[in-house]
Amino acid sequence: MLLVATAIFAQEEATEKKLSITGSVDAYYQTYLSAPDNQGATFGTAFAGQSGFALGMANLIVGYEGEKAGAVIDLVTGPRGAGATFSNDIVDGIVNQAYVYWNVSDKTTLTFGRWNTFLGYEVIAPAGNFNYSCSYLFSSGPFSHMGLKADFALSDDFSLMLALTNPWDTNDVSMTGEYALGAQLGYKGQFLNLYYDSGNNGGLGFEIDYTGGFDFGDAFYLGINAAYNDNDGSGFYGAALYPQLSLSDSFGLGLRGEYFALHGDANNDESVFATTLTGSFTVDNLIIKPELRLDSGDEIYGNFIDSDGAPSDSLAAFTLAAIYTF
After folding, report:
1. Is the four-CA dihedral 63, 66, 70, 71 of positive or negative sign?
2. Which Pfam families does this chain map to (predicted)?
3. Beta bridge partners of 40
4. 99 Cβ partners below 8 Å, 6+ apart?
C-alpha cells in the first residue's frame, strides 16, 4: 500500500508540474471630468471606453507542457475580450490565444496557432499593464497573429524571433492568399520589432517598433515604446514613456506620456498628446488602480467633447479599476 500510494503521489506531482491554470478578472468605473457621461465621449483607444460601471474581461489560460512539446489555450469573455478578438459577442467564451509548441532544442522553439502580438509595450490582459487604459500605439497595431513562429536563443543576451502569419488581425483564415512577415531582435530586455503585410484588404502595411526599458535602482523603472507605420504613404507614428515608481511593497505610481500622430495626405497630420497617471495598490492577488487621464490635441479616433457636448480639443477622465489574478 505504501508503494502504491508513493507511486500515485509521484504521478500526481508530475501531472501538476505539466498542467497550469492562470487567468484574471477585471471591472472598472469611469467618469469623464470634462464632458457629460451620457454624450458618448471617448478617447478612441482600445478597451475601457464606457462610462459608469463596466466589465473589462475575464480570461482563463490553460497550458499543458510535455517533455518536448505543449499547448496553450486562452479563453476570454467580456467587452475587452470581444474587442481584442474583433467579435461582436461579449457574452460567450472567445478564443484569444490557442497554439501548440515544440521545443526543438534548448535554444529553438516553434509555435503554431494564434498568439498575441509581439509589437508594442502593452498587452491585452490588464494584469500585464501598469496603466489600465491603453495607448494609441498599442490600439493601432495588431492584437494577435495567426501563423507559425520560431524563437531562437542566440546567446545569453540576444534572441531572435521570425514569423509567417495571416495578415493583420486575420485571426482565423486568410481568404486572399496573402501572408505577413514578422521579426523580433532582442538584447537584454530591449526589442526591435518588424512587421510587414501588403496593406491590402485592411492590412497594416509596414511597421517598425521599439519596446524596452531600464531600471534605475530598485524602485524606479522607465519603459519606452516608439513606432512608425506606413501603408501606401499613410500611417501613424509616435512614442511613449512609462516612468514607474515603487513606493512600497504594495503601492506604486506610473505615468504614461504619449505623443501619437497620423501621417499622409488623407490624414492631415492629426496628432494627440495623452497623459495618464495611474496608482497601483495590491492586496493579495487583487490590484486596485485609480487613474487620471488627459488627452489633448486633434481628435483622431475618439470623440472629444466639452461640458456642453460640443467638439473639443481635449478630454479628461477618472477611472477606478479592480483586477484579480489567479
Report:
1. negative
2. BBP2
3. none
4. 71, 72, 111, 112, 113, 114, 115
Confidence of residue 86 (pLDDT cuts 50, 70, 90): confident
Q: Is 180 exposed, middle or buried, given 0-12, 13-18 or 19+ CB atoms closer than 10 A?
A: buried
Which of these, 41, 45, 44, 49, lies nearest to 306 by C-alpha position?
41
Nearest to 275 by CA among 315, 224, 228, 227: 315
8 Å CB contact between 145 and 182: yes
Give which of 284, 298, 293 is closest to 254, Cα–Cα: 293
The pTM score is: 0.90
Q: Where are the alpha helices (DSSP H) in the chain?
A: 2-18, 79-84, 136-140
Q: Is the pLDDT of residue 2 over 50?
A: no
Record: fold of 19-325:
Porin (2.40.160)
Task: Give the distance between the most distant pair of CA atoms in the chain.
Answer: 79
- The SS3 of residue 77 is strand
Cell numbers for 29? 468605473
User: 497617471: which residue's cell?
Assistant: 277
pLDDT at 5: 47
The pLDDT assigned to 90 comes to 56
CA dihedral sign, ordered 229, 119, 190, 245 = positive
Cα 265 off chain centre by: 29
CA nearest to 165, candidates 120, 118, 122, 126:
118
Grid look-up 481584442 returns 84
**Cell numbers of 175, please?**
481568404
Q: 318: which 3 cell numbers? A: 477618472
CB-based contacts of 93, cutoff 8 Å, min separation 6: 75, 76, 77
